[in-house]
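Long-time lurker. I teach an intro course on protein structure, and each term I like to show students one example going from raw sequence to a predicted 3D structure in token notation. This year I'd like something fresh instead of my usual example. Would anyone be willing to generate the tokens for the chain below so I can use it in lecture? Attribution to the forum is fine with me.
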Amino acid sequence: MKLDGKKALITGADSGIGRATAELFAQHGADVAITYNTDAEGIAETARRVEAAGRAALVIQNDVGDPASVGATFDRIAGAFGVLDILVANAGQAMSGMEVAAMDDGKLEQILRVNLMGPLFCARSFIRLRRAQGGRGKIVMVSSVAQHLPTPESAPYGMSKAGLGSLCRSLSRELAGDRINVNNVAPGLIETPMTAGRFEDPKKLEQSLEHIPWHRAGQPGDIAQAILYLSSDDADYVTGHTLVVDGGLTMQWGGA
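-- Reply from a regular --
Happy to contribute to a lecture. Here you go:
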């Protein structure tokens, strides 16, 4: 098992990529702290799957965009696990259909705080904890192909994901001496509750699939496998890297 005996935090684990990652980590021997913001039923199902795999699930409600809430989360983990080896900063929020000229400050701040500041707040607490325990550890952020592609009518979303790419690179240099690996996974179109609207209209779905050379949407497990690799000893010589998992979407963009 790739993560035997490890302790991991996975934010936004009530569905989709976060749930798939928590379940896969448990299958590979890790105990997991799993956070959610509002979906109590969803996180309960994730915990059930983790425990069915024979590992411990520590459920925590938090707001990753609030540094006090993030600090309290890490205090709980330290009390329950005593150690934390892996951070998966997965929690995020989507947006669409809002031009910059029409955007209010509240919406802009909400997206940036959840998608960009949230991973930074979590990374900051994780770094402090790992340094107190002698260093080493893995940080994996979940970004999006939006960090590489234009995002008209959802510019703050693209900004936040591009910022994660920059944060990953900067932290990889800052933390090299601590032997803390920092990497980023950038999913393409993945079938999750966040993207459900894309799958309800067959015509819109087909239009989306036309841009993907693999001609299928990804599944949460596709991303979980990438996160598992970057969280494991197999990736000890990988840091500062964004792993794009998109069925070739970014290679096709702008093509015929």
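Some talking points for your students: Residues 105-132 form the longest helix (28 residues). The chain has one domain: 7-198+219-247.
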